[in-house]
């Protein structure tokens, strides 16, 4: 039956509250979401990344069956000045298979030749029947064509697939082939083996599964990208985080270094202690946003670096570095050029560069963050003012996001807000990582924010931990973000990804290795909110009886007509909540329910990834009903209307 009652107006809320924050931390990009399987494909690893790294990290020099030659790293005639290092192989002798009693000696096995083998990021995972796109740039030096065998090898060098290529060009040329694995392997490697004498240069050796997300070339790992798509995020903020401002002016993230052919991108040290190939660059970020229907939110440096620059991350250094004033005109132009690159016509200077990459249509960039958690020094303020004023003058339609430091309050927080107010920016980025108890004692934080001031983008937040109790504390807090979503316009949990054995930040949303992933309870909470959002907030629908362990919110999505109830119990006992739907017209009593509940200390791991998962069920609602919220739970009830 259908209940008809008078509707009352709710509060209009932000259309894009829940999104994602992606940073290349914890091997989130290279070795993670970015599907490239070859590690150090361009031989650009260096001790600056991490002291023991060099041009041949993750590579082995291979000489099979009494073959010999030499391998050198050279820089005098690279594919591009942005990509200086490459391998020169001089193959002086290719042996012959031994026969008879000598043929069982390990050195006699395999195809005779000299080459290089890539070990991937902790080895490569290959699947039987799947196709892999191999490519490499090569240049003949000794004047005659050279034959190569490219193979995927499993354990003990077992050949899973191989193909031949002939290197015949005297200039750098891209050689490609497709490899189809004959069987599964979790410990595969890629061997590029020269099987004839001669000398040549090799660079940008690459291997991608054809099965990337949406089958994009230079694409993303399909399973991990799908997890993000499943969340239906309203936006994606990228590429960081501290990664953006870098730990010195030389290490800032410069968007122009990350677009164009991969062999021309400027690789650099990742301040989290590894290396960025920039293979996942601005084009790929924007393309991914478009593919999943999320607004792109790039963050650009405010022309200053981290206050800990020059030292080990977070252990102090010589201090913030600022771009010299004489470089600011060019830097501001770089910021302005991003808008033209993203939104300009295909005939504009920068729009044509986007179009040449295969995207003539504009990307519809609406937001740009300026700065990340910077110390609000006079140097910062001067540069921040210059950048924001230039963007506002040329592109008043762009919503600029200011920055307010790493804490929920304090000196930089106040100063960051003050400068954003002064510049009349639409949004300010707040960040805080706290204990779950902090979230539960700050459920009123945004109730008193001045609605005449800039809106809030809660760009990074998490309670310390990935146990259910952390996720449920965040869920309680998120109901208050919905309640205040007239002033809190956007929010994103952080960090997003963490790779097993390569984690610099221990509380994260998704843990993964080369093969599998584990979704934290925090992921499930984020997804339950982002896939059950609306456009209007209604107060006084769910009574929590002033019990501080209970939180709730009620939204309506006027596109679908659905009423969405969220009920959170952070306590250890079941609690009753009273729901009064008499404000709503024409709702259908048969509703869908999703419940996440369990032991407060429970968590998911790669070994047991489904210990804590949301359960779907059907329920019946009426004009007025009681809901018994299980201990430590988030419940979403979605009610259809006619
Ligand atoms: O999310 C991890 C880090 O936390 C981000 O890089 C930085 O913005 C914050 O300090």
Binned strand content: 25-35%
Strand order of the largest sheet: 2-14-17-18-19-20-21-22
The helicity comes to: 10-25%
Number of domains: 3
InterPro entries: Alpha-L-AF_C, ASD1_cat, CenC_carb-bd, GH, Glyco_hydro_b, Glycosyl_Hydrolase_51
Catalytic activity: Hydrolysis of terminal non-reducing alpha-L-arabinofuranoside residues in alpha-L-arabinosides
GO molecular function: alpha-L-arabinofuranosidase activity
EC number: 3.2.1.55
Give a quick rundown of the structure:
Pfam families: Alpha-L-AF_C, ASD1_dom, CBM_4_9. The protein has 642 residues and is an alpha+beta fold.
What does this structure look like?
By secondary structure, this protein is of the alpha+beta class. Helix content is 17%, strand content 31%. It starts with 10 loop residues before the first strand and ends with a strand. An eight-stranded parallel sheet has the order 2-14-17-18-19-20-21-22. Helix 8 links the parallel strand 20 and strand 21. It folds into three domains: 1-35 and 220-233 and 431-642, Golgi alpha-mannosidase II (Immunoglobulin-like); 59-209, Galactose-binding domain-like (Jelly Rolls), CATH 2.60.120.260; 245-275 and 294-425, Glycosidases (TIM Barrel). It contains ten helices and 34 strands. Helix 4 (328-343) packs across helix 5 (349-356), helix 4 crosses helix 6 (378-394) and helix 9 (468-483) packs parallel to helix 10 (521-530). Bound molecules: alpha-L-arabinofuranose (AHR). Alpha-L-arabinofuranose is lined by residues 23, 25, 240-242, 372-373, 406, 431, 460, 494-495, 505. One of its GO terms (biological process) is L-arabinose metabolic process. It catalyses: Hydrolysis of terminal non-reducing alpha-L-arabinofuranoside residues in alpha-L-arabinosides. Residues 459-633 form the Alpha-L-arabinofuranosidase C-terminal domain.
């Amino acid at each position: 039956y259908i209940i008809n009652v008078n509707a009352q107006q709710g509060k209009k809320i932000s259309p894009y509250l829940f999104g994602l924050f992606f940073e290349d931390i914890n091997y989130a990009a290279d070795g993670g979401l970015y599907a490239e399987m070859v590690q150090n494909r361009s031989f650009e690893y260096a001790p600056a990344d991490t002291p023991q790294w060099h041009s041949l990290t993750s590579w082995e020099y291979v000489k099979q069956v009494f073959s010999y030659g030499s391998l050198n790293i050279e820089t005098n005639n690279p594919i591009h000045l942005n990509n200086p290092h490459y391998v020169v192989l001089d193959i002086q002798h290719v042996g012959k298979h031994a026969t008879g009693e000598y043929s069982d000696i390990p050195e006699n096995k395999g195809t005779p030749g000299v080459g290089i083998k890539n070990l991937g990021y902790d080895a490569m995972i290959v699947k039987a029947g799947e196709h892999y796109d191999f490519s490499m740039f090569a240049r003949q030096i000794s004047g005659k064509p050279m034959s190569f065998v490219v193979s995927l090898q499993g354990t003990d060098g077992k050949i899973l697939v191989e193909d031949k290529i002939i290197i015949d060009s005297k200039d750098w040329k891209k050689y490609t082939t497709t490899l189809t694995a004959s069987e599964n392997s979790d410990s595969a490697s890629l061997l590029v083996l020269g099987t004839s004498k001669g000398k040549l240069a090799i660079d940008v050796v690459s291997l991608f599964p054809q099965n990337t997300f949406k089958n994009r070339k230079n694409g993303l790992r399909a399973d991990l990208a799908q997890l993000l798509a499943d969340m239906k995020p309203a936006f994606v903020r990228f590429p960081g985080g501290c990664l953006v401002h870098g730990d010195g002016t030389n290490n800032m993230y410069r968007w122009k270094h990350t677009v164009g052919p991969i062999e021309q991108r400027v690789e650099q040290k990742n301040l989290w202690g590894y290396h960025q190939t920039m293979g996942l660059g601005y084009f790929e970020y924007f393309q991914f946003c478009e593919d999943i229907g999320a607004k792109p939110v790039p963050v650009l440096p405010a022309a200053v670096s981290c206050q800990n620059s020059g030292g080990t991350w977070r252990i102090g250094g010589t201090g913030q570095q600022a771009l010299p004033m004489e470089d600011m005109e060019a830097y501001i132009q770089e910021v302005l050029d991003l808008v033209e690159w993203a939104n300009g016509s295909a005939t504009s200077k920068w729009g044509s560069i986007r179009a040449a990459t295969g995207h003539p249509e504009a990307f519809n960039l609406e937001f740009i963050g300026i700065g990340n958690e910077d110390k609000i020094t006079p140097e910062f303020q001067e540069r921040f003012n210059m950048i924001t004023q230039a963007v506002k003058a040329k592109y008043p339609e762009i919503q600029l996001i200011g920055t307010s430091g790493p804490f929920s309050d304090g000196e930089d927080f106040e100063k960051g807000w003050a400068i954003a107010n002064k510049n009349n920016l639409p949004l300010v980025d707040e960040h805080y990582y706290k204990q779950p108890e902090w979230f539960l004692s700050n459920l009123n934080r945004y109730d008193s924010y001045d609605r005449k001031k800039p809106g809030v983008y809660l760009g990074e937040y998490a309670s310390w931990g990935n146990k259910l109790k952390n996720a449920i504390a965040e869920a309680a807090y998120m109901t208050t973000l919905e309640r205040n979503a007239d002033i809190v316009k956007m929010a994103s949990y952080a960090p997003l990804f963490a790779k097993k054995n390569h984690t610099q930040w221990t509380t994260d949303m998704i843990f993964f290795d080369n093969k599998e992933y584990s979704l934290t309870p925090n992921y499930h909470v984020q997804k339950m909110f982002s896939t059950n959002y609306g456009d209007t907030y209604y107060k006084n629908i769910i009574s929590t009886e002033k019990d501080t362990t209970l939180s709730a919110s009620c939204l309506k999505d006027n596109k679908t007509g659905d009423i969405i109830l969220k009920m959170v119990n952070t306590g250890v006992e079941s609690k009753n909540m009273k729901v009064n739907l008499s404000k709503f017209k024409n709702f259908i009593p048969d509703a869908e329910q999703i419940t996440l509940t369990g032991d407060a200390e429970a968590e998911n791991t790669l070994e047991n990834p489904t210990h804590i998962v949301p359960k779907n069920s059907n329920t019946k609602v009426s004009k007025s009903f009681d809901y018994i919220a299980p201990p430590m739970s988030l419940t979403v009830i979605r009610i259809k209307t006619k």
